[in-house]
Amino acid sequence: MCGIVGYVGPRPSQDILLAGLARLEYRGYDSAGIAVIDESGSLGMRKKAGKLQVLRDSLADAALPEGTTGIGHTRWATHGGPTDANAHPHLADEDRLALIHNGIIENFAALRAELIADGVTFRSETDTEVAAALLGREYRRTGDLQEAFRAVVNRLEGAFTLLALHQDQPGLVVGARRNSPLVIGLGEGENFLGSDVAAFVEHTRRALAIGQDEIVAITPDAVTVTDFAGNPVESEPFEVSWDAASAEKGGWPSFMAKEVAEQPEAVANTVRGRIRDGEVVIPELDGLDDLFRGIDRVIITACGTASYAALVGKYAIEQWARIPADVELAHEFRYRDPVIGENTLVVSISQSGETMDTLMAVKYARERGARTLSVCNTQGATIPRESDAVVYTHAGPEVAVASTKAFVAQITALLLLGLHVGRVRGSVSAAESAAAVAELEALPGKVAKVLAEEQAHVAQLAGWMADTRSVLFLGRHVGYPIALEGALKLKEISYIHAEGFAAGELKHGPIALIEPGQPVFVLVPSPRHSALLHAKVVSNIQEIRARGARVIVIAEEGDAAVLPFADEVIRIPLAGALFEPVLAVVPLQIFAMALATAKGLDVDQPRNLAKSVTVE
To answer: How does pLDDT run across 214-228, given as a tens digit for each residue?
Structure first.
């Protein structure tokens, strides 16, 4: 889950590399480094442990010679700690070759032993330096970087994106990918490589995705893509749908604050173009009606925050499409021999489209004959290309590690999917469909209302609770996955113990955690949708209040029944039962962000985490 960038062209590469790495730092920020070939044809390299700013400061003190060919890397540590020595790039061939890597080389130990026996001395603990040493050895044999690359990648096992340059071949950067992302940026007289389009979107919005087991070579005037056997590969360019300004803070104190504020737009953009004549019609799914009529089971697979969106999607698909739906954690799915077949639809959810656990689950499903559909926020990503169909969310770039606007966009996309499949199967009535469409169209405005009316209140609560050591979250029905997500957000960025529970489970064990002063968030379902469920949750509130808990309730406007039992009430607008999660999660996002800020923590780059998890 590292960030990589490559450049060849007429401009000084160092500035382009550093700017690209700044946009990729969400992928890892344990260390950073760059390598450039200068005008004299010599290779210069600098790498530093710590965030990108440490490298910037080092280069400001002693700049590398200018050059127009370069590669850069920002690391999330796997093999070896975050030290200068373990940072990328790694050098080989008497320091004339530099290589960077995203992923894990699973057979590195055997290769390292082979190289040591061949007289190679290693300077780091990484698996990456093994690839660099292999490439250096092959280059000495072939004298051609592309040919050497082809020989090396066919010996590697695991997940990798590799970029390399050699001072004997200035004006050339070669890359390869297997189970890890790599995208080409197509410029005029210059070309780019990156693990994400964010690496180069400031300079070009024309991009080309690299497929599985492919090698790319870029020069200022040409891009060549082949498979690992050397056969030419043709790919279609695509246009990036957002510009560089979308990935800038734009005056906000953090990317997370900006992205929370952008949620009304993220929901609106995900809905846009998918309502036709008062019904949900997803254009990307045209021609798949027979598939949807023929399936008898849906499995939604995802990890982390996306898995909680999946739990909401399960309710929507079952209610509107009337198909049994299950949610599976992607990293568990393929290891338990699940029962799937040609009538199973496996829906994967990934913001980046590169989540390795989820990608492997999709491949497993396809191998066993299931049909696959992905919900993704990133054009040109691997998971959509590996799936039979894709429903893109249109949240725009999400830079903060803790997901916010991508999450609400994922829920919105799953609501759309449930309605689309329900229409195709004839299982949702015209009246129910019309009501749902009205809810979808009103949803962005309701999210904006929560932000406008409750943000200051919730932030004030968080400020009062900055010393809290544990927070619990309770919910029922679609409130349960939101309780899980609220707890995850708090854990991710404030490092406070937090747990989400189904409220009905309280009496089966978790109530033992309740003691005087224990903060508990309770998501209260609307009494308009189920008076019984509402009464059950109010009863849960009474149970914990009787034991001294401090209760913060999230309830719809006008719900007076919660007032006698709540210490604080956060209001959300009236909405349909399946649409409430999009509104209820917003105060929990704000709470986590405000509490982490009150503790003086970096909400955008929490410790030990990275945005895109490209290792399994």
So the answer is: 999 999 999 999 999
